[in-house]
Fold this sequence. Notes:
Its cofactor is Mn(2+); Mg(2+). The protein has 286 residues and is α+β, with helices and mostly antiparallel strands. It has helices at residues 74-81, 85-103, 123-130, 136-143, 198-206, 214-223, 229-234, 260-266; strands at residues 2-3, 17-29, 32-40, 51-52, 55-57, 69-70, 108-109, 146-148, 152-159, 167-176, 190-196, 245-249, 252-256, 276-277.
Amino acid sequence: MSETNAPVNSRAEAAPLRDASTVMLVRDGAAGPEVFLQRRVDAMAFAAGMTVFPGGGVDPSDATAEIAWAGPEPAWWARRFDTTEPQAQALVCAAVRETFEECGVLLAGPTADSVVSDTTEYRVARRELERRELSLAGFLADRGLVLRADLLRPWANWITPVIEPRRYDTRFFVAVLPDGQLADGATSEAREVHWRTPAQALDAWRGGADVLLPPTWAQLVALGEFASTAEIFAADREIDPIMPVLADLDGKQLLQFPDNRRYFADHPESSRLRGSAPATDSSGRR
């Protein structure tokens, strides 16, 4: 929580925005679609202990890298996310790279219509990517792999409020877990990982077991409206940037964003929200 006693929607100098990508990895379960979630380690400098989706910052070098590419071209992604083609390419690359680094799921294959079914042979490369000793373009080229942009779909765009010291312009993607692949917790950034239906994840939050910031909460609510991963992947989302701002709500200074009254009403610490403003992390790890 970020405590405040007065409305503050600007800093002396707002922190610069950094582009980031977040991927909601989904699969079909017995009770409906499930989404992969991580609880960040407590030692993290940012969003410590939060329950989030895999994701992270964009590498600017991906904007112009030569990459074997299958699926919608950068121009298509640029239109959906209202950005430039080079930046759209970098956002998609970040989505693929961060998903592989953080849970071992690789959205790439040896051909434009195939996807790797076992990623264990790339274990060393995964660690090198995480340490930034290897670029995504270099990894794909060395292994003769094609980036499968068609395994991703655009979902949302959240921007960190100007009151925060670190700010991110994050594009959310959705991807269905490829057949044969397993999502794991073999990353230094996660304390634990799990698959949950959106309803289960929201129940855990309401019960105080997990901490969900508004962007994560909003996506779980949206995912909960679908009965299958096929419906999620086929959804044609209207993507408008959302940047929460502080404003008066029933005499309290709280962050304003779509359906925020529901968020605060269900929040496990709702009784402590008088005069406070929960921080919203749009860093790519939501």
